[in-house]
Protein: GHMP kinase
Amino acid sequence: MLIRKKAHARAGLVGNPSDGYFGKTISFIIRNFGAEVTLFESPELTIEPNERDHSVFGSIEALARDVRQHGYYGGIRLLKASVKRFFEHCVKHNLPLHGRNFTLRYSSNIPPQVGMAGSSAIITACWRALIEFYQVEIPKHLLPSLVLSVENDELCIPAGLQDRVIQGYEGVVFMDFNRAHVEKLGYGIYEELDPALLPNVYVAYTTKLSEGTEVFHNDIRGRWNRGERDIVSAMYQWANLAQRVRDMLVAGRGHEIGPLLNENFDLRRRLYKISQGNIDMVEAARDCGASAKFTGSGGAIVGTYEDDSMFEKMKAALEPLSVAVIKPQVL
Structure:
């Protein structure tokens, strides 16, 4: 038995980072990039290392470069934590597990450390493989919360539900993380939208090294927990932007959402310390007439553009900044 399961990169179109704070977001999948987990039966349970997990380097410079690109941890911890959490979930809910062992290996071409949800893609693909191997049923609306628990509870990585929802549902999803709903049921209210409702959208990402999400979110979480007025108010504003964009898309007014995406980033810029490289990327895209905001936590942007002429203009403007521009494959 050979099982191969994938999960793709994603872009937070609008509303982020309110997903981790009982807000609302819209996200879409990026099929251009993905993580794949392979599972096959074996005598012992084995998790094979990927090139990101190695500990032998050609020089001290090579070690430093590897850490800047991939962080201090590869994917093994993600798989180990996923298997542990999967087992505990099955035991808790009396889901029978056979006694056969397996080997896991993973690969990913999702650009690292640029806010396109590479870690949660590996975890989601792992859960899909385990579900098939053990032939258990886990409802689609519950899987994102289980994936999030791997990061939040097992690995103490701060994150919200958005990435795990879109990687579980795929396509385009409007997410309402209503606090009463989430705290009572453990998941939000998820509405799948027709990808055809999207206007022309692009994704651009730096090919240089970037700070990871784990560092980026820490201070905002603390300020929100302390009830700082500016942060609490911003989460409501981001949620409202997501609701307005959702309503415009459903009404066939997708070509009008660009200013709201810009507003999403401008609010973030007032509250977060953002590196000059990220600001330059956003401003270069806007100078071409496109809208621009972060796909996640920095290193990649998403926005709308009018036509192919504007898209090519953006590519020419961003290439000198070591930024690649793509048309995301949503379907």
